[in-house]
Amino acid sequence: MNKFYLKLSLIFILINGCTPDKQFENKSIRHLNPFPLSDVELLDGPFKKAMELDRAYLLSLDMDRLLADFRKTAKLDPKAEPYGGWESMGLNGHTLGHYLSACSMMYAESGDTSFFNRVSYIVSELSEAQDSLGTGYIGGIPPDFFEKSAFDPDGEVKNFRFGGIWYVSAGAFFAFTIRTYHRMQN
Q1: Is 141 a domain residue?
Q2: Nearby residues of 130 by Cβ (< 8 Å), 6 or more positions away
Q3: pTM for this model (two decimals)
Q4: Is 160 exposed, middle or buried (0-12, 13-18, 19+ CB in 10 A)?
Q5: Is residue 6 part of a domain?
Q6: CA-CA distances (angstroms) from residue 108 to 4, 114, 116, 129, 182?
Q7: Is 108 part of any domain?
Q8: Based on the number of CB atoms within 10 Å of its own CB, is 90 exposed (0-12), middle (13-18) or buried (19 or more)?
Q9: What is the extent of the structural domain holding 122?
């Protein structure tokens, strides 16, 4: 009996979900349109205060520490010691993607050239690291990390969850890098 009601419910949902609703047929459709962050001005209040705190935090971070593992992977001497936490636990470089995205958003919103300069410096350093490695790869995690951490010498899976972190970190870095490029054309 329960299967009957389940099937009947599914059929009802499919029929109603697939037929046009007459009440909306002649109404105009409104679309949401994106607009640049530079079109938004925050007035004094909690959102502006939060943005100012974010700005101060972003400017307090040492770019060379965020770039340290990218330089190591490219066989270049790091200019500073890397940060701890995720940056030392297999997600090396992940934070730099977030940082690039945040700096590009801050630049797009405020026009503050210190953020443009930070992004330009990081892009320049990443380019140097990529050129040094000579394979086209760029990342805070060595390119063979996944294979070394997820498989044993016979090619059998030994720890897929840990090896999968490589994809999470690399994916985040590249996604944020692409967003930065689109915001700043750099």
Answers
A1: yes
A2: 74, 136, 137, 138
A3: 0.72
A4: exposed
A5: no
A6: 57, 12, 9, 26, 11
A7: yes
A8: middle
A9: 45-184
Structure token pair of residue 3 = 């299967």
79 occurs within a structural domain: yes
Number of domains, the chain: 1
Bridge partners for 151 per DSSP: 157
pLDDT tens per residue across span 158-168: 655 555 566 67
Residue type, 55: R
Tokens 């294979």: give the residue: 147
Q: Which of 168, 138, 50, 34 is nearest to 102 (CA)?
A: 50
> How many whole angstroms separate alpha carbon 99 and alpha carbon 95?
6
Identify the pLDDT of residue 143: 76
